[in-house]
Amino acid sequence: MAEVKKEFPNGFLWGGAVAANQLEGAYQEDGKGLSTADVSPDGIMYPPSEDPAKLNLYHDGIDFYHRYKEDLALFGELGFKCFRTSIAWTRIFPNGDDAEPNEAGLKFYDDLFDEMLKHGMEPVVTISHYEMPLNLVKKYGGWRSREVIGYYEKFARTVLERYNGKVKYWMTFNEINVVLHAPFTGGGLEFEAGENKLNIMYQAAHHQFVASALAVKASHEINPNAQIGCMIASMTTYPLTPNPDDVFAALQQDRKTLQFSDVQVRGYYPTYMKRYFTENDIEFEIADGDEELMRKHTVDYIGFSYYMSFIATTDEEKLEEATKGNLMTGVRNPYLQASEWGWQIDPIGLRTTLNILYDRYQKPLFIVENGLGAVDKVEEDGSIQDDYRIDYLRAHIEQMREAVADGVDLIGYTTWGPIDLVSASTAELKKRYGFIYVDRDNEGNGTLERKKKKSFAWYQRVIDTNGQEL
């Protein structure tokens, strides 16, 4: 049998990924308005709180707004080929419905992207990542309102035009399917008693699909050479047993995610959702022209996050044995270990996910989030021996290499949180992902000093050898 080549393509985009609201800080500087993240001190799964006495670590983040040059220099030392971040909507349009953009906000990202390019990093930019102007929530009801589509389109066109020539890779929404799991974070949705929540969430999702198509249209008009993708939280599901009921339950669970990529990649609602909408009394407005717009303006590539896999079963007793996960809970897989936060570690699941997505769409894939959140200990000599993080990432990169050998068109890999930042799920700092330690704790104390962990030199070598030395 001939040996199959297992290597990443030339020009593979190695890097790291962050979100503006989780590390920038400076939440009211230079004209920035309040966002949904600014009133979410407990993370994305919790109701908002505007109690000024409640500590919100998002407000100061890790002070990236003032320290980005120092941090990008460290990423440059790592050898990053790209760096994924987002643009804080409220830095550009503080209220969302402002007549004119905020020049100070626009200039900040001009300077940020220039600094990235100086270090040889392609900016990979998410237009909307887990935040939106709070004013659009209070005044219009968030993404349940069709009016928000126009405000998003204005925001998207503003940044696409401003950073044309600097940014080649864009994504329209971060983990767009999160609107079903964390509706305030994903859609700025607040509910009144008696409302059909599913109905409202799918109406919001439809508005985001239309907005995403408008952003794709704008991107292709402004710079046909740029690439603009969708981004989904991908969570491959296995059946607990060979029982056909479990197998079909796993299919149904995966479809709840895949419907979001189906619409943005294929350009229409999948037929399997019609029954789901009927059985759950889901009715939402599709305006004239929406379907044509979505069909004409599909994404160039598929970005996705991958942290874990899930188990599906129809056995009610097993369903009570839930384990934690990214946005969702599921049945514990007896064959897998889990992180300190209960997230099940499944590297082969990443290869499976890559193959499923590529078989389904035949479009380039980009892993834009993958990593291990853990409590890191600073040793007496000042070192941070995070071998567990190295083991996690090595195992996942090995499976990425296998997927590329399978024929998957994979264009890049950005680990989540290359520098410690505020966790989205729990809004804490003790859950660390980075190759770079930041001296700040859950109470907001610390010097903000940056310190390299053991994994820093390891990832540096991985990038330098294009994934051959792990």
Automatic annotation (TrEMBL):
Keyword Nucleus: no
Domain of life: Bacteria
Cellular component terms per the entry's GO annotation: cytosol
UniProt-annotated catalytic positions: 369
GO-annotated molecular function: beta-glucosidase activity
Key words of the record: Glycosidase, Hydrolase
Listed Pfam families: Glyco_hydro_1
InterPro entries found in the cross-reference section: GH, GH_1_N_CS, Glyco_hydro_1, Glyco_hydro_1_AS
One GO biological process term: carbohydrate catabolic process
PANTHER family associated with the record: 6-PHOSPHO-BETA-GLUCOSIDASE ASCB-RELATED, GLYCOSYL HYDROLASE
Family: Belongs to the glycosyl hydrolase 1 family.
Protein name: 6-phospho-beta-glucosidase
